[in-house]
Amino acid sequence: MAAPSPPKTATAGPEVATFAIPTDSTMAAKAKNRPDDSNFTQQTLPMWTPILTLRWSVGVLVVGTIACFALGGLVLHRSINSSVYRVVYDSLAAVESNQSDGRVAYADKCHLATPREANSFSGTKTCFVTINLQRDIVGDTLVFYELSPFYQNHRRYMTSQLPQQYMGGWQVGDTTSACDPILTSPSSVLCNGTLCYGTNKSRQHYPCGLITSDYTNSTAWTTASPGTGVENEFFRVWVHLAAGNVLRKPYGRVAVRNLPAGTTLTFAVQSNYYTDGTVPVLVGRMHLLKLVGQGRKLSWSAK
């Protein structure tokens, strides 16, 4: 018999890595999020890149010029032919002059000569603004008030407020520098009926800041007075800052639509807001009121 062969011994050497051959199921699982191999999904669509030649440049400039002239002419036409009536009621110089859009009765009562006469809320400060419509107003007739000049776009004025107070996120005793220079009133006389704190018994303004403290409060009620403060829509309109030096804000609308020419509108205005400028009442359509007064500037800017 042949002798058995000796057992094989393990030989030392580097380990060889093994790789699993991918199957169809594993390849499908890895490629399930892969986009389609199309020009659209792979972003390889053919594109047209025009060469900026002299003809192209001149053509683009001519088309843009024609569009600007057309837009400017439209704005100028709507501004000139707008059915907007503007009557100043607090300036004696303007009231005594001939105002083509209306007249003011008892104008001296609405004129505030000094800041001490403001915020009186007295019936003796009432005048009557009468406007005679010379053209038909189709749709809603809106009432605006205007302050000129009034710079709500001033940087210091714009930052003097705390929007969290408008949403109720404020507690008594909280301090902030965002409302400087108006956060509290140091005089204890102003604490009547309000909550005062501190050693000097000062009253905390809520909301605070220049914007809320300058809130115009001249009134022209036709019904019972609505709510006040942050729940008042007039206040919400006021804190939406104007971009120019002519502040024009919506106040209300006439209940009757489609007013014909010859209609007479009379407003009982109580003057409580002191200003060095003029405070007129404006009546007309909304889209026209946005253009009137600045329509010619806009038209020439467009041109």
Describe the 3D structure.
The protein has 303 residues and is of the alpha+beta class. Among the domains are: 38 residues; 154 residues, no CATH class. The chain has ten helices and ten strands. A four-stranded antiparallel sheet has the order 1-10-4-8. Strands 2-3-9 form a three-stranded antiparallel sheet. It is extended and about 95 Å long. The C terminus is likely disordered.
Q: Regarding quaternary structure, how should these chains be classified?
A: single chain
Binned strand content: 15-25%
Question: Residue ranges: pLDDT <50 for 5 or more in a row?
Answer: 188-195, 219-230, 291-303
Q: What structural class do you assign from the helix and strand content?
A: alpha+beta
* Silhouette: extended
Largest sheet: 4 strands, antiparallel
Number of H- or I-type helical stretches: 10
Overall average pLDDT: 73
Question: Roughly what percent helix?
Answer: 10-25%
Give the beta-strand count: 10
Overall radius of gyration: 36 Å
**Span between termini:** 117 Å
Order of helices and strands: HHEHEHEEHHEEEHHEEEHH
User: What is the spatial order of strands in the main beta sheet?
Assistant: 1-10-4-8
Main location: membrane
Family: Belongs to the CDC50/LEM3 family.
Subcellular location: Membrane
Membrane topology: Multi-pass membrane protein
In short:
The chain has 303 residues and is of the alpha+beta class. The protein has helices spanning 24-30, 54-80, 92-96, 107-110, 155-159, 163-166, 210-213, 233-239, 286-289, 295-302; strands at 85-88, 102-105, 126-132, 142-147, 184-185, 196-197, 202-204, 247-253, 264-270, 280-284. It has 10 helices and 10 strands.
